[in-house]
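thread: overnight batch results

M.L. [08:02]
morning all. the overnight job finished for the chain we discussed friday. pasting input first so we're all looking at the same thing
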Amino acid sequence: MKNILVPVAAIFLAIICFTSCGNKTEEVTAPAGMQVLDLTKYGKPFTLFVPDSSKGVLTVTEKNYMLEIASGKSFGLVIEEGDGNMEQKRADIKDGDGGVSKFKNYITDEPNMIVWESEITKPEFHLYAIVTVGTAKYIVQDLNSTENEPYTSNDIKAIMEAVKSIKEKVKA
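M.L. [08:03]
and the structure it wrote out:
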């Protein structure tokens, strides 16, 4: 009887372990003032942190194969699948986006992310990043909106932290 009980118990424990662990996804906890946004329902296999509802209404809009994510007037970014070209973007920035704005300086200058200050009538801040998730590459940049004031230094820091928080959503 003992000889049968040990294998049966081992099989029972293995079944419980596999069924209880099998379809769970890894939990991600957002820092204070932020919430986790799961983009899998928009065809993007990742999550990122966005401001919680105290900062404004969160909107996710699909446009021409891109996602526009905004929360209030001080947070907005655009995500599109593609390789991007960091060197070309740096050249465009130094050129003042065709003479429209005046480049002042880089706040962050990393191989896959740049944050810079420019000025048209007053200082404004921008972000451009290339993020790899799994085997796909995404271009992420601030959402330029003529309806809102340009992003401040603090606004762009929150956007930068959101980009840095992008994490592939995998099954555990």
